[in-house]
Amino acid sequence: MKNINSLRVFKRNENEPNPEGEFVLYWMQINRRLHYNFALEYAVAWANKLGKPLLVFEALSCDYPWRTARTHWFIMQGMAEHQEIAEKEGFNYYSFLEEEAGEYPALFRELAAKSCLVVTDEYPIFIMRKRNESIPQTLDVPYYSIDSNGIIPMKMTDKAPYSAYIFRKTMQKQFRHCFEHPPKENPLADLQNRDMVQLGESVTQKYPDAKTAGRFSKEWLAGIDVDQSVKPLAIEGTRKAGLERTTQFLEFDLKAYDEERNDPDTEGTSRLSPWLHFGKISEHELVDHALRRQPRDWSRDTLKPQNGKRDGFFGGETGIEAWLDELITWREVGFHFAHHTPNYDQFESLPDWAQETLTEHEADPRPVVYTYEQLANAETEDDIWNAAQRQLVREGRIHNYLRMLWGKKVLQWTPDARTALDYLIRLNNIYAIDGRDPNSYSGIFWIFGRFDRAWGPERKIFGKVRYMTSDSTRKKVKIKEYLKKYARF
Ligand SMILES: Cc1cc2nc3c(=O)[nH]c(=O)nc-3n(C[C@H](O)[C@H](O)[C@H](O)COP(=O)(O)OP(=O)(O)OC[C@H]3O[C@@H](n4cnc5c(N)ncnc54)[C@H](O)[C@@H]3O)c2cc1C
Question: Where is the Photolyase/cryptochrome alpha/beta domain (predicted)?
């Protein structure tokens, strides 16, 4: 059978490798890791085939949408970690922190011109999607984007999955085959040509690397044009920190995940989404770790597709089964949906029934209408909502269960669904450290009916879209301590 991982390769232009090129360029855009990374593995394979060295290029622009000191610092910490590893292990790594818009693309062009070919990360949304669509046509060398996002390659589905149930059916059929073709743990170990790349002063003086320029610091960050009111977090953007959180979760919370994940007081979820978002850890390695904790008599031979039903596929421990469904089905359905849906961030990408019912109820009077600023400042009449918003501002995240309620209330408190979408996308992508992710759009658009079905009875404002209230949340989950903890900013 054809290697499943060939489905991860997106050949973005028809150029031939430049035989005069000095190196193969791996442009690390979003899966910012040196391990379990199919794109890096592919770049190493090309370097070996051409007998050339490899240059890993990682950078950060200063003009991306919703930029904040919070996201900047998280990414910078990960880059500083890579810089240290590169110095210790002796591979070619160039980090660049942009000070003026335009420097980063100009540097990329210079590096691409010196290269034999470019390999980068495939990603279905945000600036990476746009770059991967437009840049290859402007280069003279080949440009490959590689899908290292999840277990099921995005090319494996032929259209946007309508629901998690439909995607789960595909996942259950394909999981074993895909999982048994994992990325290599340390692809750089296979690199043959270890020559040091000399970029020359025209590059290094004009675009000094982040360390030489002394930019890996909070002082430097304070002078950059990003939203400085959204502060850096206590958690670190390094792979090391992501792996530590992984171990804590697997050791202490995984088995009870199914019972405890909905209680804000318990904090029973992994809190790994920030590291997953920036690609610091790979889904493959997390799934592998979780499956190793199945009971002794469990084996992959027991995996039997359940026709889209969650229970019974992974089997074994209920906590492991529940967590893997979130990590694989719910995480990846968003990647596949966005991959097949260029307007993934627009009202028009909602299912027809949802667009119709929300439009029919557009004129319904709202009990109260809040401005974007009132929402951002947690100035509503609802104590649960305000607590969730304060958690978002303080910690860059909201407990998963409350994140649903948080979204539903904004639909109720804004003049129409399009305004609600606009506010939610802004709040989420500015404050949430895991924002600007395919899952940001899965979660936000789920509020409006994506991946869901029509519900009855039909209600004011929501129409047939699923409804949630703070009162029922208060009855359903343990939230007393949470409300105390986030009573103020
Ligand atoms: C309005 C709204 C906005 C959201 N915005 C984001 C976002 O910006 N970024 C983001 O990563 N997730 C988002 N989600 C999905 C979900 O809330 C988070 O992934 C989850 O809370 C992260 O916490 P955790 O890492 O502890 O998850 P765990 O429960 O430990 O799950 C493990 C991983 O599975 C994935 N996952 C879990 N639940 C979901 C879900 N419902 N949908 C998609 N993937 C899931 C995530 O990658 C998560 O890290 C949003 C949900 C809603 C309702």
Answer: 22-154
218 part of a folded domain: no
Does residue 38 surpass a pLDDT of 50?
A: yes
Give the residue-averaged pLDDT of 284-292: 98
CA of 101 to the centre of ligand 1 (A): 31
**Domain endpoint, select from 289, 319, 340:** 340
**Alpha carbon of residue 233 to chain centroid:** 18
Kindly report the CATH number assigned to the domain that includes residue 132. 3.40.50.620
- What are the backbone angles phi and psi of residue 26, rounded to the nearest 5°? -105, 115
Distances (CA, A) of 319 to 216, 257, 293, 299, 340: 40, 5, 10, 17, 31
| Phi, psi torsion values for 6, nearest 5 degrees | -65, -20
142-155 pLDDT tens trace: 999 999 999 999 99
Q: pLDDT tens across 365-414, in order? A: 999 999 999 999 999 999 999 999 999 999 999 999 999 999 999 999 99
Ligand 1 contacts CB of residue 440 (under 6 A): yes
Residue 92 CA to ligand 1 center (angstroms) comes to: 34
199 domain-assigned? no
Contact between 353 and 464 under an 8 Å Cβ cutoff? The reply is yes
One domain for residues 6 and 111 = yes
Based on the domain organization, do 308 and 356 belong to the same domain? no
Tell me the CATH number at 461.
1.10.579.10
- In whole angstroms, give the CA distance from residue 197 to residue 22: 8
Domain count within the chain = 3
143-146/9-11 β-pairing: antiparallel
The reply to whether 5 and 118 lie within a common domain is: yes
To the nearest 10°, the Cα dihedral for 274, 278, 284, 287? 0
329 lines ligand 1 (CB under 6 A): no
Nearest to 65 by CA among 125, 146, 145, 135: 125
| Residue-range definition of the domain harbouring residue 409 | 347-485
